[in-house]
Amino acid sequence: MPVEIAAPKIEVRASTAPPPQTDAKAKVAVSDLNFFYGRTQALHNISIAIPERIVMAFIGPSGCGKSTFLRTLNRMNDVIPGTRVGGQVMIDDHDIYAPGTDVVELRRRVGMVFQKSNPFPKSIFDNVAYGLRINRLTSSSSELAGRVEQALKDAALWNEVKDRLKTSALSLSGGQQQRLCIARALAIRPEVLLMDEPASALDPIATSKIEELIFDLKKQYTIVIVTHNMQQAARVSDTTAFFLLGKLIEVNSTEKMFTAPNEKLTEDYITGRFG
Amino acid sequence: MDTHRHLDDELSSLRDRVLLLGGEAEQALERAMYALSERDSEVAQDVLEHDDQVDHLEVEIDRQCIDIIALRQPAARDLRFVISVAKMAPVLERIADHAVNIARAAIDLNNEPELNSVLDLNSMAEHALKMLRAALDAFTSSDAISAREIIKSDSRINDLYNHTFHRLIELMVTEPATATRDARLLFVAKHLERIGDYVTDICELTVYMAEAAFIKHT
């Protein structure tokens, strides 16, 4: 659904500061990305490099474009009519907007977890096995069972569900359902995991489990998380990017961002003195 | 409820309290030195009795910092401010403690004949007070440039201390009868020298607060 971005009331200037130096290779490299919902420009000249195997958090007020930008990283916006994108999004050395890109394969490599858990009305096992089956990623039922078990273990859910894999996923608690969705995303072994406010509907205990999980998963995956909860961004991410009115204002190490950001706009947002 | 204004109010109240503590430390030092130079033991006794209020204020500031961190979760400049205040309050309390020790020395010395030796203790105290006032001003206005200048000026106190130290040792040798009093004055000089170091700590915290730069031990 198109999102109207309010006309700027304050001058927003993208940061001229260089992104933080890191030895890690850039898994995702975005250059001059512009995005439009019809005639409304939602993203303006976004350039950012996301290093491999880190957690990057996107923060910013509602309507700033952070979720829109997240969805450009696996072309989830393609399903919205009337959208246009310009610029380049490279994952490894491949431009994902190049003609001929296999979007299904792209979304296998770049998995996504949404704000609201969305398990299929199927068993726990079948939820995790779903992507493996439709992509024909396993050759035997024992391999399938092994991949499902591993995904549930990686999502820190195995011990809670191993004795009831055939029961409905809808019988799980909200936090368990969200971890099931993470397991479903992990089962097909993506390289990048996009998370759009994955814990915003969960209680503090379930949130804590998701955050611990994110911390563990970064050993294997590049994770990008959109969150409205700044303490969560501070807790789970290595790098934070601040968006405002469709522009990327600052990218910095999370430690620097929350103690001494470079940009005044970032400082004003982080200290709650915005607008 | 406007939570941001609430936070601003709390930070403002914290700033007022730390300045009040700074004022108490400044006054304690000023009065202790007056008690010493004017041989007024009543004033020295006042300094001793007033110290409980200083301690109480430090504890209040500690509690307020913990409350703000736990309940408001400040970030960026607000976080740096609260952390700086939390570290500054004990430093100011220690300055007041040194003033108390000077007041105790004054009470002891006032019971004995006055020494006629020319010493730089008043100059040291004046410089320490000047540094402390300037440091509190720099903190209030988040002025890292002034804070750095104040740090440099600590060498003046160190020079005066070294001069006083040698002069008092000389006196102990040449006039052994004054040795006990010389020793007490040596402690006073050391207290003043330490106050200069504590003011330096305050200025380092101001630089951190203003610029997020760690200049301690650099």
Structure commentary:
The complex is a heterodimer of chains A (275) and B (218). In chain A, the strands form two sheets. Chain A has a six-stranded mixed sheet, with helices on both faces. A four-stranded antiparallel sheet of chain A has the order 2-1-4-5, with helices on one face. The longest helix of chain A is centred in the middle third of the chain and has 14 residues. Chain A is built from ten helices and ten strands. The two termini of chain A are 26 Å apart. Chain A has a domain of 175 residues: 3-Layer(aba) Sandwich (Rossmann fold), CATH 3.40.50. Chain A is globular. In chain A, strand 4 and strand 5 form a beta hairpin. In chain A, 33% of the residues lie in helices and 24% in strands. Chain A is α/β, with parallel strands linked by helices and 275 residues long. By secondary structure, chain B is mainly alpha-helical. Chain B has one domain: Phosphate transport system protein phou homolog 2, domain 2 (Methane Monooxygenase Hydroxylase, Chain G, domain 1, Up-down Bundle), CATH 1.20.58. Helix content of chain B is 85%, strand content 0%. Chain B contains six helices and no strands. The longest helix of chain B has 35 residues. Chain B is elongated, with a radius of gyration of 19 Å. Chains A and B meet through helix 8 and helix 10 of A and helix 1 and helix 3 of B.
